[in-house]
């Protein structure tokens, strides 16, 4: 942990309280040992006073997960960074229905940013704590086979197939794969793909125990304007209803659709968490109360256990 987080924990928790936290985590560590957890990283949604601080906190969570026996896979996009580079290059960014219109030059920019900037930054942050992380692009070993989503959007892709072999080998060798969401078609043409969609597809392909999205809200609400209406547990059927009636809309739709599809196709649970909360991954995975919104095929009813 960072020096700042160490100081705050020491000041707040007595030795007995710190021991109690560790004991509370023990059954979850046992339950999730050797299980795959796919985490969608979004830099704008993470805790910390600065981007570097946010990334450091996230890296600590991933490393701790790995050290206690889980198998984390990190999936990331880089929309803000792509927009920033396009602005510097004097290129206009155009969006349609929330998707970036991507011509040949723009897809090259996306490749540079995702594989050449964001991915190495995440890998380096994790590897501060040891030789854990390996950066992978969807182009590597045809990890992500893609096709054009809409001709009017240019080189924006849909996931056609995930070939999880390279990820499984890395996990078997106890590495943490960090995946940049560029895919390719049969001719080798690159496509920029929504990272939420890719995270769900990878979770399905790996038979993940959990799929986790870090966002800038505390979870899903039944009433958008009412913080007290936070949905702690839900099912794919309930989420279908909330999307159909417009309760879930806009940028949350790709995340929720991916959660729904993943849980219906073998992923045990999906989670939507507020990434602005320090160590939110650990709070969700290793405490009785959990945090955020959890999606599963059927609501889990055992008292005190919702992770």
Automatic annotation (TrEMBL):
SUPFAM superfamilies: Carbamate kinase-like. One of its GO terms (molecular function) is ATP binding. Keywords: Amino-acid biosynthesis, Arginine biosynthesis, ATP-binding, Kinase, Nucleotide-binding, Transferase. GO terms for biological process: L-arginine biosynthetic process. Its EC number is 2.7.2.8. Pathway: Amino-acid biosynthesis; L-arginine biosynthesis; N(2)-acetyl-L-ornithine from L-glutamate: step 2/4. GO terms for cellular component: cytoplasm. It holds the Pfam family AA_kinase. The keyword Transferase applies. Residues 35-274 form the Aspartate/glutamate/uridylate kinase domain. HAMAP family: ArgB (MF_00082). This is acetylglutamate kinase. It comes from freshwater metagenome.
């Amino acid at each position: 942990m960072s020096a700042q987080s160490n100081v705050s924990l020491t000041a707040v928790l007595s030795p007995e309280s710190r021991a109690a936290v560790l004991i509370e985590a023990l059954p979850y560590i046992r339950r999730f040992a050797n299980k795959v957890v796919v985490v969608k990283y979004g830099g704008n949604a993470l805790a910390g006073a600065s981007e570097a601080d946010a990334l450091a906190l996230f890296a600590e969570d991933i490393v701790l997960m790995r050290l206690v026996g889980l198998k984390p896979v990190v999936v990331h996009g880089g929309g803000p960074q792509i927009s920033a580079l396009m602005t510097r290059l004097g290129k206009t960014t155009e969006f349609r229905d929330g998707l970036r219109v991507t011509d040949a030059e723009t897809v090259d920019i996306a490749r540079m940013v995702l594989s050449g900037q964001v991915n190495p930054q995440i890998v380096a942050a994790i590897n501060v704590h040891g030789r854990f992380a390996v950066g992978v692009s969807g182009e590597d070993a045809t990890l992500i086979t893609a096709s054009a989503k809409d001709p009017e959007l240019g080189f924006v892709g849909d996931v056609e197939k995930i070939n999880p072999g390279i990820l499984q080998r890395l996990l078997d060798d106890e590495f943490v794969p960090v995946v940049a969401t560029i895919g390719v078609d049969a001719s080798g043409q690159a496509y920029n793909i929504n990272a939420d969609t890719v995270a769900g597809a990878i979770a399905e392909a790996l038979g993940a125990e959990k799929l986790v999205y870090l966002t800038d809200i505390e979870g899903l609400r039944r009433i958008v304007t009412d913080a007290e209406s936070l949905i702690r547990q839900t099912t794919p059927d309930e989420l279908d209803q909330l999307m159909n009636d417009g309760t879930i809309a806009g940028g949350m739709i790709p995340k929720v659709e991916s959660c729904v599809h993943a849980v219906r196709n073998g992923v045990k649970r999906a989670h939507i968490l507020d990434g602005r909360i320090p160590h939110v991954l650990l709070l969700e995975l290793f405490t009785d109360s959990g945090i955020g919104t959890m999606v599963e095929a059927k609501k889990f009813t055992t008292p005190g256990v919702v992770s």
